[in-house]
Every structure is written in C-alpha cells, then in structure tokens.
Amino acid sequence: MTTHAPHASHTVTLPASLDEAVAALTAMPTAVPVAGGTDLMAAVNAGHLRPAALVGLNRISEIRGWQYLDGHALLGAGLTLARMGRPDFAALIPGLAAAARAAGPPQIRNAGTLGGNIVTSAPTGDTLPVLAALEATVIIAGPGGARREIPVSHLLAGREMLAPGELVGFVRVPLLHAPQTFLKATGRTGPGRATASVALVLDPARRGVRCAVGAVAAMPLRPLEAEQWVASLIDWDGERGLVPEALTAFGDYVAAACIPDPAPSEDGAEPAGLPPAALHLRRTVAALARRALGRALS
Fold first, then answer.
1. What positions does the domain FAD-binding PCMH-type occupy (predicted)?
2. Which strand (E) or helix (H) includes residue 165?
3. CA angle 154, 70, 147 (to 5 degrees)
C-alpha cells in the first residue's frame, strides 16, 4: 500500500510483510524505514534529515512478537520497549526487560522498538549493552527472501553493515536461565539518557560472567579480562557469593578497562591524569559494575 500526502513530495509505503518491506526499500533506494520513529523524528525536527520516502514497518505482524527456538528466544525487531518491559517478557530475559523499562518516559517506550535501538546504535541506547552481554545475534532480511545472521556486536561496531535494501528482522537471544542485571546512571532524577550503564549476566553452563558497559563510548564495551578474572573467583557449584572486596575490585577493574589512563607521551614525559569529568565517570562505572555483580550473585 502506498499513500501520497497532498501537496507533499514524499511517499509513505506500508508493507504487510518483511519481504514486502525489503522490496520497497530495494525499489526506492532513498527511502528510510521507520517503526517507532523516536530517533527519526528527532532528526527530522532538528533539520538533520529530510527523507524523500518512508517505509513504515508497523503493519508487519511477524516482527512484533517472539518465539522459542532451540534454547533461544527469537525476538521480532518491531517489539516495542513497553512490551519488553512487561512481566511475561521479564521472566524470559530479565536484563533486556530492565533496560526496556529504563528507556525513558512512557511515550518513548510505547513507540521505540528493539530493532530501532540496534539500527540507530545511539551510544546511550539502553538495550544495547544487554544485547552485547547476552551475545545476541541479528537476523537480517535481504532482497529475494535472503536471510543472514551476524553478532549484534559486529553491527554496533561497524564491522558489518546493512546493505541497501536490507532490514533487521529478528534478534536471536540465548536463554541462560540465570540472573541478569541492568543498571544505569543519568544526569537527572527520573527517566533520562544514560551517562553510563552496565549490563551483567551470569552463564552457569559455561561458568562465565559477561559484562557490557554502555554510554561511555560509541558502542558497548566488554571488559573481557575483568569478566574472566571474576568468573575464576566464583564457586559455581556452591553459593556463588563473593566478599565485598572482590566486588569492589571487579568494579574498579571494569571501570579502568573502559576508561583507561592516558597513554604515556612519546617524549617520555609523565602523562597527565584523567580530567575530573572522566574520573567521575570512571567512579560511576565502577559503582554500577560492583552493584550489578552483587545483585546477580545475591
């Protein structure tokens, strides 16, 4: 279905299936896909974007739910943040539900979608560190019914990109059946953009801890050495508790990995220390990581 707004130069296409949406984008290379439109409309209102055509995704029912598949959850890219925040979804993937509930005021959660968070890849996107910690993958729909699957971290890091006519259709998330936490700090009281966020999940089957830090860089950061170090301290067959000193050390380890000290200068001079704002951010990340691990292990 295509509608032409009176006296407007743009076209709005409303496909009913993922393949129809791909076909529309292939036929109109300048078209922009839109679901919730929270980031798109902000860019339009700011004058940064003037799309010649839009392909609306809200009528595609196949990407607005989820299903179980071989120990994974297959999440439609059109799932809204509000839907992911409900109790039934929280029982499935608690870390992602917590991030969805923290993602701004109700009007943003009602409109914003999982796929939109991924494709926009805003550094402050609350779902992104959770997806990175869960090692989720995205299923991309392409022309001619083609499908390909890549790690979500590759897309966020720009290691792999969407080709013309491609859309993120689904997100595959492993069901770990273990504690998951998401915490964020904002610059004000109440819902707001994260100044730092931490997602942490336990993976008892692999005796691992996965942590991702958001909002401090262009993409979520995984402090792999800190993960491996703290996983080696956990009694996976027992109570899984850690002494407070170990939790504090983990937080400091994560923060230093994500916000490192300046490198030495080439002339051998003593490097300047971190500026006060960076030191404050490092302390914030350390506190979030410490609390996230403590809650996961409690």
1. 4-178
2. none
3. 45
